[in-house]
Structure formats: C-alpha cells, structure tokens
TrEMBL record:
It comes from the Bacteria. This is Peptidase M13. Transmembrane segments: none annotated. The keyword Hydrolase applies. It comes from Dyella flagellata. The lineage of its organism: Bacteria, Pseudomonadati, Pseudomonadota, Gammaproteobacteria, Lysobacterales. It holds the Pfam family Peptidase_M13_N. The keyword Cell membrane does not apply. Residues 1-21 form the signal peptide. CDD domains: M13. Residues 484-679 form the Peptidase M13 C-terminal domain. Its cofactor is Zn(2+). Residues 40-427 form the Peptidase M13 N-terminal domain. InterPro entries: MetalloPept_cat_dom_sf (IPR024079), Peptidase_M13 (IPR000718), Peptidase_M13_C (IPR018497), Peptidase_M13_dom_2 (IPR042089), Peptidase_M13_N (IPR008753).
Amino acid sequence: MHSLHRILAFTLLGTASALIAAPTQQSGIDLAGMDHAVKPGDDFFSYANGTWVKHTDIPADRSSTGPTEALEELTEQRTADLIRNMASTHPAAASNERKIADYYAAFMNETAIEQHGLSPLKAELDGIDAIKTRDDLARVLGGELRADVDPVNATHFHTEHLFGLFVAQGLEDPAHNMPYLLQGGLAMPSRDYYLSQDAEMAEARTKYLAYVTALLKLAATTDAQAQAKAIMGLETRIAQAQESLLDSEDIHKANQVWTLANFAQKAPGLNWKIYFNAAKLGDQQRFGVWQPAGTTGLAALVASEPIDTWKALLRYHAIDKAAPLLPKAYAQLHFDFYGTTLRGTPKQAERWKRAVDATSGDLGDAVGQVYVKRYFPASSKTKVQAMVKSLIATFDERLDTLAWMTPATRAKAKEKLSTLRVGVGYPDTWRNYSELAIRADDALGNHRRAVDENYRYQLAKLHQPVDRGEWWMTPQTVDAVNLPLQNALNFPAAILQPPFYDPAADDAANYGATGATIGHEISHSFDNLGADFDAQGRLANWWTAQDAAHFHADTQKLAEQYNHYEALPGLYVNGQQTLGENIADVAGLAIAYAAYHRSLHGKPAPVIDGLSGDQRFFIAYAQSWRSKVRDAALRQQLATDVHAPESIRAQAVRNLDGWYPAFEAKPGEKLYLSPDQRVKIW
C-alpha cells in the first residue's frame, strides 16, 4: 500500500497464508490435494487445492492454516528446541544466548507474572495519573512515542500510541535518514472498525465496549463502565480524524516535510515542542508527516477533549498493550476479544509458542544468528542466489520486449534492476543487544525494555549514514520483502525451505512456488508504487508521460478485475487497495514462468506424474497459496490488508497466455479472459 509501511516494505504474505502437504511425488506437486471435479478454467484454486480444503481443519489456536503456518510451526518448534538447549548449557552472563534463555524463561514463568500483577505498569500509570494540564498531556504523549511501525509483520501501520515513529531515508533525500510521524491512537485494527456500518463491524463495536469495561473492572477501576464509554467515544473521534487507508496510500499526498514551526501552524492543539522533547526528538529540524490531515485532526483532539478522558484512554491503552504479559485473567480477556471475536480463533496458542514468538520478536537478530547456524546451510543460500540471478536476468530480457516502453524509460528501469540489492537468508551484520537488560523473572519488563532499546536504535540512525543493506526481517520469518527506499529485497532463511523451496524437487515446482515469490518481490520495484522510486530509492519520476499513461491504464484494468472477486457474501476485494500486491503477483508469476522456460535451454520439459512442465508450474503456484481461513479473520483482512485473499491470488494465472493451453481453459468458463482482457504489465 502507499503508506510508509509499504514504501519501506512490500511483504509477500497477507494475514492468512497456507500449507502444502509435503508432497512425496518427484513432481513436487501434492496430487492428492487436488480436486479434479472442478474445472481449472472455473476455479483454479479449488482445482489445485479442493480436496485438501475439504479434509483440512483449521487448528483451534489459528485463524487460518496453510504452508506459511506450517513453516511457522516448524520454525517455532526448532527455535524452542534451540532455546531450551541454550538454557541447559548455562551460557555466560550478558551473552546473547543468556538473554534469549532468560527472556523465554521469564515468559514461561507464570508464577512470577501472577505475583507481579500490575506492578510493572506502576510508573507508567502513576505518570498518567499525574497529568493536570495540556502541557502535561503533551509530555506523556511524547514520552510514549515508540518506533512501533512494523513494515514487515503488519499489513498497515497500527499503534495505540497517538503517533508512531519510523526512521528511514528521506523520500527525496536518499543520503540522509529522517523521522516519519504516522497517525495512531486506536486499539482495534483500523478506523473501519469504529466507523463502518457493516453489521459485523457494528457487532464488533458492541463487544469491544464490553471488553474495555471488563478490562477496566479487572484493573479495579471504580467507574469502569462510564470510563469505557468515554474511551470508546474518544477512539471513535480519533478514527474520524484519521485519514483512510486509501488516502494514506497516496505517496505523493504523503510526501510532506514539516519543521517544528509547521507543526504549530498546521496542527495546533498539541504543544509540539514539549511533545518532541519528551520523545527525544527535540534536536530534529525536519519530520516526514505521512498523514497531514490526520496529524492536524489528532492534535486538535488533544486540545478539545477533556483531560480526564485522555487519562482514561492512556490508562486503558497501557493495560491493553501489556495484557498478554500480565496475569492470566488479563491475557485471556485480551485473547478472547482480539483472537476470538476479531479473528474467530477459538483457542489461544500454547504458552511455549507464544514465548518463542515473543523472544523472536524482541531478540530477533540474536535468535536469528543461532537459527541460521543450525538450519540454513551455505548450499541453500547458493542455490537460491542462482535462482534470483536467473529471475533478474529474465526480467531484464522482458524489458527489451515491451513494445510500449520508450527507450528513455527502459534505460531507467534497467538501471534500477541492475542495482537491485538482494539479501538471501540473513543480514551481513547483526544487531547488538549488549545494552539490553533481560531478567529471568520479569516478562513484561523484558518486553518493555526491548521496545525502548529498539526506539534508541531507531533514534541513533538519525545521526548515522543510511545503511543500504539494513534488513527489516529476521531470518526466522516466513515471508519475503521488497524495500523500495533501499532498492533491495530480503528473502529470510525460514521461507527458503519446503514446501516453498525444495532443492530436491523438480524445477517446474520450484519456479512455480519460490520462483514466483522471488518474481513477486522483484516486481514490487516496478508496481504502482515501486515505479515511483528510482535506482537510488529516491521518489522521482523516471517515466515519460506516454509510458506512465500506458502503465496506469493497464494497472487500472487489473484493479477492476479484482474488484469483481467476492471474498465473502456481499464483500468484495478492493482492487485499488490491493493493487500493488496484485501487480506483483501477476508480474512475478509471468517472470517466473519465463525464467522456468529459460532454464529448459530449448529442451522439452519432462512429463512427471502425468503432468507437463507447465501444468506442474501453475499447480505449484496455486498450491503455494493453499489456505483455509476463518470468516472473521477474512473480514479483517478485507478491511485492513493490501493483499487479496489467498484463494483469489491463486487465480492470477488467468492473465498468462501459457496457462490456457496447459489446462484447456475455454470461453464460457469463469476464469476465461479473452487475450485483450489479460493484463500484461511487465
């Protein structure tokens, strides 16, 4: 999406992704999971995955199931084993291994968590209680600003803090880092949950009010019900003040740089000098303001809403954010709403899984170093690098075949492609955790100190040269990412394994699954947003007017195509909201298909398990999007995510000419597109 999240990182996967049963056939295809009763030309996802869908149940502690979840489970188990082994070897004090073992132990120490109660929050809650004036409020709001914009694991920016911070190079100044301020202030996933008239959203609001009331009562708030209503009212006004997801996605609207004087003039109501001093940003002269109208609206609310209401909101947000690491009653209440009500997940994950996820989140590089040493051999890295090289070469060749592209634009596109930086497996340098204090009996304190340490890390970047090789994913993350500001790609170790990538499998399957993934990420550099950035990661127009008009027309055809996909009864995919990901899916698949044929060196592909090379390629692609997702989670995805649902992403095959003869797709079938309707962007 055209938010800072997407400017910094286009991720491959959305909120629900999927599992391929590990195939035993040499083709690399799960033949048993297919449903031959479905015509490929009517529903390619169901043809490739229908039997699997019929016989697969979503685990009670998941909102969806599929290959990503399977690899996440495997990674969790491996990481848990590594952590437990660390503890048994008694690593040296202050070492990364000791910090990992102690962090995990503290999360698992439920007795200590129960004993601590709300005491780890005492200083924060006392600070909120002490607010008397608007300047006090500005100081507390600034003091809680954190670098909690996650460009990898979130599909859009979301924080309960009034604003969130991200530090990255300037959109028009790639030589210097800049602090970006983004709108926040909501506990539910997006403003739509507060404002939508959809019946399911309205029901979620009713249950949310009950949750806020229950949480406040648990925390011994005397007027819990009245405070909950006031909090709900203020969050609703915050939602009204925020810019919409589509508005936030416009990079050119978002390219706003303000000085401190601009904040006072353009967003009165908040004492910005006090705010930025409290946030340790008082020395900064320029800020990127991603949602200027939202920033103005939120600042006005600081002045107009009663101080007591703000204090109630801040106190509730502090408890709500901490709830997963508070005593069991808080953690369960939190999961019941955010897990069960909003995502339809009946059961909370086992504690050891949550402990692994938390440890990997707060000590990501430390865990990653241990993980790759054990599970990502150099041979795997070499093979994936070869596939990346092949796909980039194929993309370069395709640029020469685009009759619509003028020589000037083609030269710039080739320059961008030739300077694309590709990271495979893990970063060249690892983050230093030597200053982070971890205690074996302080789960919440460990997390809060890790968040603070990350904030210091981000602030330090403001006084350092831009690191073009910075990674935004840990090696144990099952995903991949394109970083437009760095003109770079990251492919973490955890996604480079079966079922996505199997060095022992047939090339057709690997190109259809991992090849399309790599192509997807390469294509993000040239989608409706990536195409706005040049080879240096600078926001700059490198297109001729003629080429830009052609590109825009084709992308809008794709947006309209996706607008017609009905994901739930009466709920359709938003083709504009998901456009960048859809472009990358279609273009990445086309690149992978061409690269697969290039790899054959003019020889015919073998027939394996009764399937031609093209059939194996396309089925592997559709099986890589195998998924089963709960309706509540799918509803949340449609409202907040820039990725179309997986069952729909598999249908991207209808835009490739080669798919039609491979499966004898004919006019009159639901997916059939006449040649002039097929979208070919790259």
